[in-house]
Amino acid sequence: MSMSVRIEESLYQQTKAASQGECLTIAGQLEFWAKVGKATPDNPDFPIEVVSELLVAKKEDRSSLSSFKPATFVTEEVKVLQTNVLARAYKKLHPTPKDAVDKAVVSINEPSRH
Fold first, then answer.
1. Do 68 and 82 contact (CB within 8 A), yes or no?
2. Long-range contact list for 37-46, CB < 8 A, 24+ apart?
3. Nearest in space to 98 (alpha carbons), one of 69, 65, 72, 61
4. Is pLDDT of 53 > 70?
5. Structural domain boundaries of the chain?
6. This prediction's pTM
């Protein structure tokens, strides 16, 4: 389903330019930005670049997954796979957000305690 939405001319022009660089339609670019904006409050410790890269990674080819290796601590083997997009974004992180990502990955890897 598609809908018409009014936006400012300057936002339209910014979206048009960004969509060409990302090879998306204008509607696709706006949708991507909306998803990033929606996911950011749920992940306040993650830089916006990581949130953005995670959304991109969801669409990446799964045949090239690799094992995630926490950089800041290793307590046990982490059985989480990562995409190339996430691996690149993770390498660019500073230590504090990298530690937050490590803790999040380890916590989702822990067995359920119900």
1. yes
2. 45/97, 45/100, 45/104, 46/97, 46/100, 46/101
3. 72
4. yes
5. 61-114
6. 0.53
